[in-house]
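Team,

Forwarding the record for the chain on the shared tracking sheet. I've put the sequence and predicted structure together so nobody has to dig through attachments.
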Amino acid sequence: MKRGLFSITAIGVLVVLFIIALENPQPVVLHLLGWRWVTPLFVPFLVGFVSGGVLMFLFLLPARIRLSWRLRRLRRAEPLPGGGIPGNQPIPNPLVRTPDRTRETQGS
């Protein structure tokens, strides 16, 4: 499901970038540290888009690595009671009265 959604999104982004490239063929002059670069308008747009994607990937990479380490550690750990989910023990209902077992043990 996630891969299909990712593929559809990627194809949509590529189509939008292709349309931008076709609609903006006029040249743009870029100046940086004494260099002069003449390029179509879509090239700086494409460079900004790609560099933003790379930066997003690099910023999210440490969290993804930590989560994979944690998942690996949890898979190696002993299974927990209650189906292996922390906090999956039954919660007592304060409205339901449970039988008092102390009287039974005192009489014997």
